Amino acid sequence: MVLNVGVIGTGNIGSDHVRRLATQVSGARVAALFDVDGERAGAVADRVGARVHSQAADVIEDIQVDAVVIASPGDTHADLVLACVAADKPVLCEKPLATTVESALKVLEAEVAHGRRLTRVGFMRRHDPGYRAVKVAVDDGSVGEPLLMHCVHRNASVPAGFTSDMSLTDSVIHEIDAARWLLGDEIVAATVVAVRPSPLATNGMRDPQLVLLETAGGAVVDVEVFLHCQYGYDVRCEVVGANGTVSLDTPTTGALTRSGRREQAVPEDWRVRFAPAYLDELQQWVDGVASGNGGGGGSSAWDGYAATAVAQACVASLSSGARTAVGLVDRPTLYA
Amino acid sequence: MVLNVGVIGTGNIGSDHVRRLATQVSGARVAALFDVDGERAGAVADRVGARVHSQAADVIEDIQVDAVVIASPGDTHADLVLACVAADKPVLCEKPLATTVESALKVLEAEVAHGRRLTRVGFMRRHDPGYRAVKVAVDDGSVGEPLLMHCVHRNASVPAGFTSDMSLTDSVIHEIDAARWLLGDEIVAATVVAVRPSPLATNGMRDPQLVLLETAGGAVVDVEVFLHCQYGYDVRCEVVGANGTVSLDTPTTGALTRSGRREQAVPEDWRVRFAPAYLDELQQWVDGVASGNGGGGGSSAWDGYAATAVAQACVASLSSGARTAVGLVDRPTLYA
Amino acid sequence: MVLNVGVIGTGNIGSDHVRRLATQVSGARVAALFDVDGERAGAVADRVGARVHSQAADVIEDIQVDAVVIASPGDTHADLVLACVAADKPVLCEKPLATTVESALKVLEAEVAHGRRLTRVGFMRRHDPGYRAVKVAVDDGSVGEPLLMHCVHRNASVPAGFTSDMSLTDSVIHEIDAARWLLGDEIVAATVVAVRPSPLATNGMRDPQLVLLETAGGAVVDVEVFLHCQYGYDVRCEVVGANGTVSLDTPTTGALTRSGRREQAVPEDWRVRFAPAYLDELQQWVDGVASGNGGGGGSSAWDGYAATAVAQACVASLSSGARTAVGLVDRPTLYA
Amino acid sequence: MVLNVGVIGTGNIGSDHVRRLATQVSGARVAALFDVDGERAGAVADRVGARVHSQAADVIEDIQVDAVVIASPGDTHADLVLACVAADKPVLCEKPLATTVESALKVLEAEVAHGRRLTRVGFMRRHDPGYRAVKVAVDDGSVGEPLLMHCVHRNASVPAGFTSDMSLTDSVIHEIDAARWLLGDEIVAATVVAVRPSPLATNGMRDPQLVLLETAGGAVVDVEVFLHCQYGYDVRCEVVGANGTVSLDTPTTGALTRSGRREQAVPEDWRVRFAPAYLDELQQWVDGVASGNGGGGGSSAWDGYAATAVAQACVASLSSGARTAVGLVDRPTLYA
Ligand SMILES: [Mg+2]
Ligand SMILES: [Mg+2]
Ligand SMILES: [Mg+2]
Ligand SMILES: [Mg+2]
User: Fold this and answer.
1) Backbone angles phi, psi at D289, to 5 degrees
2) Cα A191 to Cα A213: distance, rounded to the nearest angstrom
3) Among A247, A252, A258, whose Cβ lies nearest the Cβ of B143?
4) What share of chain B is helix, strand, coil (3-state, %, to 5)?
5) Domains plus CATH for chain D?
6) How far is the centre of ligand 3, averaged over its atoms, from the C-alpha of C170 (Å)?
7) Could you report the predicted ipTM of this complex, rounded to two decimals?
8) Tens of pLDDT along A219-265?
9) Which chain A residue lies closest to C233 (C-alpha atoms)?
10) Which residue numbers delimit the Gfo/Idh/MocA-like oxidoreductase N-terminal domain (chains A, B, C, D) (predicted)?
């Protein structure tokens, strides 16, 4: 039994997902796809023998499509997920689930009304071996009760057009999800601290930023997001518990020693750093869908909603300069 | 176009290969398989929808089998590879290519007579990202002319029945191939140095052993092989060049700090350590066969022959206590 | 020429200083000392052949004392330093210079009136090889313009009687000085963020705390202070610049690999971690005094005043929960 | 009570010792010194207020000299130590104790006849915190019975005039002593393995060399010595036991991350790397002499003799190309 997957959006990450589904993920094939750039869609489809549709909705409604991957621009996500729920098709939606809290809520409500979880949000870090080791150490009590979490999220640079808000909604949102997942706790407030911008930041971006997140239980998470750090892609995380700490290692392959220095390479970008995580995410999703459970271990529509709500509070705090409370609706029993 | 692979031997590594071919490798399926334990063969075949044959030869001769993976016991390898060559079918043979120099030579001669390279030997380390980074640093001149190579090869323990000779023919053979490949040089002599055996070594094994390999160009490789090190699986390698060195890192995911210690986990065994390498090896082979080149980048029958010859020199040295020259035949132009 | 040093306070750190001055520091001897516990003073004095005085003031006024080390409780520091200035004697005062901004200002004013710098504050981290390497990398432009600084300051535990305020005035004050020194910038605001206290924190302490410091130039420093971390003494620091970062390594001597783990020891306490820094601090001070410059490279009364002012802002912020501005007087030209 | 030390030889290491004794070591002063270069001797003496003698023997016989440090060229050591024994004065002799086995034996015999241990050989690694941590782990059973030891000894370069033999007698001799000390075992055979010389090695030196040392108990030590490695000073050591291993860390202060690389500095030379060890060595010696025990914890004349004997076996092996047995005399009870 092969799962027929439809893919909406075949830009950077979408075409990566198509390639993985076609060549590395077991039990799946790409049956159909759509992109606003028809030529790009055609080229990607040719490589994997998929049908090209002229509208995103057609992918979802395609009778031969069993499940959908959404990798189109973020502001299209919520409506597409709603269509998937309406069509009763499992969907893996790239983060964010929605760009507004309101639209995220609509997805929640639709899924609750539908009575079954169909949505998974593409927070791939939950599938990274390093993050999983942190999760194990937190959950098995190795570090004691978690009190603090320190995060660093750096890119060498970001494309033109990237804004200060996007640092929060597109980058920090990964730490938001990771913190909720690792600490097993909701985030109730966010504060963005103004930092002197790097002279190398483009577009007048506020970069770096320092974000503080507070959980319901009183743990505090600090996140440095710095998207023009120049030197490479660097994601770090340390959870500080009452009697120990656990932290990620940056994956390295080896060391070169010469000219008075021992050197280890830093990953170039997130594709290099998280390639195994993306693959595991897709495989777990395909396996989960195939076994009828919607893809265990990943993040639900609730997780997507909560992350969007926290990211929006960060945006508000960036604008106001003040600590901003995050008001979540009650968690539906579907997501208990 | 899907490559139909036949697999001979479905023990530990064979069933791993079947699983990978069926679920992770793109462009391949397991069409047929054989194992001396028919029940085991049947169970593995059921999981992937493969045919079971009652003899190894039938797998090779199966008209629906395009290429063959050999993962049966080492002393069966040479004859099976010969049969693949006779049948003009590409073959990925787990190391060793042969257990005697004579039978390895027969494979060489058959392939030379056949006039086309069909054989690839499963030295998976050539596909490990760490080893590849070492290779790049050696080849691009980052460390200068290579002079020395230090290797460590440790297992927590080995199964009952493992012998002192097998430390050389089954374990050190990986370092033999890695040294030849990384240094781009043939090994011309081997010396096994007697070390006090660990009191925890079973079966009266000489364990650890220290092996010295000399290359034609005068570089020296030392290898510690220690198969009852108790603490985990640990493979290290450092190439020392005229103006720098390059070394492997042991892959780690993170660090746990508690009770006065910062701790990083050591891989449990070779499956954990080299899982990505095995997968890459199979994918490269499948891609290579599909594109008609027999699987570029891996080790040839010549490499398998040379490794067997060096391993046999090690065995002779272990027995005699003396430095033992390795006499290789001239390299046929097929392997130039 | 040997510098005759008088030491006031021979508790933990004071007796350490006496021992160092007597046995490890070149060009100095301990001529006289005082402690409120006369018996303790006598025992320490016997070991080094020093005179014991019955009052702190007598040490300062002792005609045979060339320079003074103050290691008595913090609330006695300012008056003792004032007495040293009045006596025109160089003084190394353990941090803090003063426990109130007002008394710190009195020291400043006295020294300015005196017209010559006599005071050095014992911020030993400026003498740690790791911190100095960070300083070099910041100053030589290796990391570009500094934008952020992340600090961690953890003790396994603190003595009974240690309070939440003392986390700021006795522990974080080290980071305050380090940040000012490394970034070459004054701190203009402080915010203490409430974190869920560790269940293992004693005395109802707020522990850990997260402190944000903002510099005049817009750089932001975050400090985790956690004084019941259980596992050891852990001080870290990373300065993030516009094109790179530089961070401390925790000094280690080696690694033990066993039972599936590679382990490195964490220093037990600050004495172990900063022993070489304390020694260098004393030697530099003695050399500086001997050469008539008051001990170059260390922190001045201005540094001690600024650190006290920032620490007091932290205490105010802990109490109010609000960001608290630090109002410094104009820097006298004596400290330009 | 201050120990009056006489120093013979004020070249690189001798003048370092003078400086340390004068400024960093407690309980000692440099009373007298000698160097073949009288001008150099005078300059060094001036800095520390020592008397200059016109002959080495005069330093030893100086009635105001309590103990002697020998840092003159290696071939003068044995005779000077003999003179110290004759004068009943404790002596710290830089390695080697002697340049021939015969002269080392004479020292042994003289000391045995004298009936009291006066000689300590300057193997400073026994005072390095890293080596000491390895010693503790071996002695407390953390790694189980030691079976193998891997050593690396690299210098960026060596002065003109340094020879292949000196690699063994001046450099590897440190590993010889370290191995004997760490493993608690005598070395009974040595083999020097020919390695292709680095094209950057000067003076036609065989560099690098690979040395194998076998202990009486059957443990094997391999030593890479490479004195033109270009990149810095790098000393490593790993002891492999039956159930774990323990290794040195190279001391580092921090990491600089920029341009795709995380970099840590390698020490420039042995002075940087082992400065704390040299200081501890001198202090322990001074304390030991002062307390009448001759300086506990360091290496005795027996250790110096054994190291010389092993180094000479290495030289013989380098010349003959063969494994060379080390024949030690019976250990006198004075060194039990
Ligand atoms: Mg994602
Ligand atoms: Mg293999
Ligand atoms: Mg201090
Ligand atoms: Mg020495």
Assistant:
1) -65, -45
2) 7
3) A258
4) 40, 25, 35
5) 3-125+275-300 (3.40.50.720), 129-268+308-335 (3.30.360.10)
6) 9
7) 0.96
8) 999 999 999 999 999 999 999 999 999 999 888 999 999 999 999 99
9) A244
10) 3-119
